[in-house]
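Quick log. Single chain, no ligands specified.
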Amino acid sequence: MKKPLFANCSARAACVLALFVLPGVHAQSTSPQPWAFIDAQIAAHARTTGVFVLERGEEALLARAWFTDNARESIDVQYFIWSADNVGELASAALLRAATRGVRVRVIVDDLLIDAPDKALLALAKHPNIDIRIYNPRHSVGTPRARRLLNIVSDFRGANQRMHDKTFTVDGKIAITGGRNMADEYFDFDHAYNFRDREALLVGAVVPEVQASFERFWTNPLVVPVEELYDGWGLMKKNVKVDSREVQEVYQELNRYAADDENFSPAIRATIESIPQSFPELAGRLRWTSARFLSDTPGKNPSRFSLEGGGRTTAALAGLLESARSEVLIESPYLVLSTPALELFKKLRSRGVRVRICTNSLASTDNLQAFSGYRNQRSTLLSLGIEVHEYRPDPAIQMQVMQRYADLRREAPVFALHAKTLVIDGAVAVIGTYNLDPRSENLNTEAGVVIQDAAVAAEVARNILADMRPENSWDAAKDDPDQFAGFVKRSKVRFWQVLPIKPLL
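-> predicted structure:
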């Protein structure tokens, strides 16, 4: 059973959620004012991109809420994970409302970790204005258990090749990209475990590049409409159908869930009814500058049997790193360097480039397999003079980033790093989905935005350096961070360390 998510959220969070949840209180949903403002801003900054860095989960929800409820023509979303938790359900309800008022909604979700009942997924896909497609359906949607095993045995690389892109595009003019998936923990609303994440909100010139990447996936044979994945037999497909009555029941249940008073205290409901006019303030903080979008082609690379092969984002990021002259700052939840990546960092250090990396500690990580790869090479990285900081599960910055933290103090959720960010020489920032590991390098498709602007780079660098402070991270060269993890977790990671799984990490 889902835990009530927003009963104790802050007033600002309530403003965010009001735009997602309550159809009757959307102060600007029928007003042209927001888009008139956006259109005027785009016209005034031709050939440049407006950038706003989304550091807080609540800010990220606020942005999505405004754009979903004010979309005029289209919403295109692409995610690695879409969970059937509170945020996932509310986002689905918001997209359904947009589609019902005539907006074309297209959704691409990777097959591996999608969490949605078969009939609900099929019912949503049957809406005349909603199209849902699944990337590389080998594991979940429409696939019986026996078929999953057969897929892994017959095409191991294919089964491991996933779409890790995360993009949200509205009317071809607004986009968001970065590390967040569609689930509670990526927006600071989980009661047990949340992520320190980062995204970029983009307006203007770079958005057509985001849209073009989405179209490449949408039309690729690896991306399959939901309707084609059901109604089968034996090992091939699940036999799932929905009639018109069941479709309407799914829609009604989503709408009921989105308007359920039991999820909200009276104080929060009162706050919802007095939504501030937040959008002009947010848009007014955009930094208009030069940006370009990085993305892989569906399938990542032409390899069919090898787990290597690189990709467009790998080559582009390697080129950016090679251009560094003085300093590289990196945040990555996973830190497992392939042989080529290790050689690249050796060259940087030999040229005197300072390299500082913030990654998860054993105490904070949710991925022991990936941490085992890092643990196997941690001493090598430190011997090169790379400064590694491991994120604490209880960082002081949690108080700032999670505005609801005071309300959750008794439960004290673990806080882990999920941001994937790079800053080079204080002049270029990259915000995206790319983890510093072989899986992002060779298997998963990735995406991100390169922002060539010293002011944005300085802002991102300040936040990365804040995450590296002693109250937020342990210094891997001095503090022995593993001691702060429990015995069971330390034992498990030692088991993974001896297995030859590095190419899959």
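The chain has two domains: 11-284, 296-504.
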